[in-house]
Amino acid sequence: GSRTRRRRDRPMSLSTLLLCSATSAIHHGHVVDHAARTQPLILTALPSADADEALPSTFDWRTVDGKNFVTADVNQHIPIYCGSCWIHGTLAALNDRIKIARNAAFPDVMLSRQAAMNCVPLLSAPDMPPPGCNGGDPWSIHHYMSKHPLPDESCQPYEAKNGMCNAEGQCRNCFHPMMVADPTTPKVEYSSPGCWAVPFVGYKVSEYGGVAGEESMQREILSRGPIVCSVAADATFLLDYEKHLVDGVYVDETYLPAGGGPSGHDKSEIDHDVEITGWGVSESGLPYWTIRNSWGTYWGERGWFKLLRGSNHLFIEEDCQWAVPDTSALEENIQARAVGDYVTGMQVKPTDESAADLLRRRAAAARAARASVATPAPKEPLLAARVPAAAAAASTSSRTAGIFTYVVGLTLVTAAAAAFGAEWARRRQRGEEEAGKEGSGGDAVLESVAPYTRA
């Protein structure tokens, strides 16, 4: 895509775009906002200041000592085409930085792309609707998150379309239509059919800024995690990616010195944002960046690619951004200082007393709701009259049968006990008589009745 946003009444098809010159760009969603970029928010020393430490020849956050520190891959063009690479590249880097900062501990965090679509404005046009699918600047996301928390993907899944930046546009929950109609369902303020806004665990950034140049980029990646960088992803890159691989590394000959070099291209071609997670060297000695794209796992190397490193290829080393995520709200939730409720959303965990009071109030409200529901009148009075009478008769019959069963059972138990007592007395008397006749031989007889005496 070009830097200039398309008017909706003048759509341009992909085939039309491809008829443009080789320097024309495809609208992926990067719209640089240099004029509105304020001073970076930097609180700690930058990694690039530590230039004495030697850099490794290869490094990749996907495998560090056998551990993976990157999150899941996604696709910006599903369910419909959307120029939201600026959101995908930026949030991918933040997702991974959260995982790195927490040493890959549970849970993985995927920030809500749709909430960013709905709420992050262009800094140069803060009073206009957020650009969303029309393209934006990673800097704008970092600036926004330094002031406002962003929820995770479970709050607001990706829809690939511009939405409203209201409470529900950031985090929502919904009832089934039958629950909405049920008078015993807790009352909530619906902002759309069956759905309402809820508080959430939010994520901010504590620092952010820019970085450029091969070594500075490497030091930032190595020290604090992946970065998001802009790149010229033209029609050749989009449609003929595999034809331009050299030892697995993407190389566009027109950007090489023999082909005119970067000077033969215009920076207006920069139209895409991607995440860089590391670097390496191919078997033939080509240095490359390890990059995550946002076009799905069926593109490139399962959604990733390698790009020639060290020569500002496709302007990849021209304009990169970094930010330090703040996960304090997540830690409060994990440590049980905050807890989520289906209706009221995330809140400070109530004390035992306040929780019990909440349960009592909800139970009272449910009883009141049930009591307020009128019992529908029977359609057939005669049948309705017979049913209670039959039920009463059945109840009387059931009680009579129960009494009869009890009396019979008691009689049988009494008779069995009497027979058992008589048999025990008879055997005991006979044992005594045998003992008098045979002396010690009576012990065997007494033993024979012992089970009865123990019983």
Automatic annotation (TrEMBL):
Residues 1-25 form the signal peptide. GO terms for biological process: proteolysis. InterPro entries: Papain-like_cys_pep_sf (IPR038765), Pept_asp_AS (IPR025661), Peptidase_C1A (IPR013128), Peptidase_C1A_C (IPR000668). Residues 428-437 have a biased composition (Basic and acidic residues). Pfam families: Peptidase_C1 (PF00112). GO terms for molecular function: cysteine-type peptidase activity. Residues 55-324 form the Peptidase C1A papain C-terminal domain. SUPFAM superfamilies: Cysteine proteinases (SSF54001). Keywords: Membrane, Signal, Transmembrane, Transmembrane helix. The chain crosses the membrane at residues 403-422. Residues 428-455 are annotated as: Disordered. PROSITE patterns: THIOL_PROTEASE_ASN (PS00640). PANTHER family: CYSTEINE PROTEASE FAMILY C1-RELATED. Belongs to the peptidase C1 family. This is Peptidase C1A papain C-terminal domain-containing protein. It comes from Prymnesium polylepis. The lineage of its organism: Eukaryota, Haptista, Haptophyta, Prymnesiophyceae, Prymnesiales.
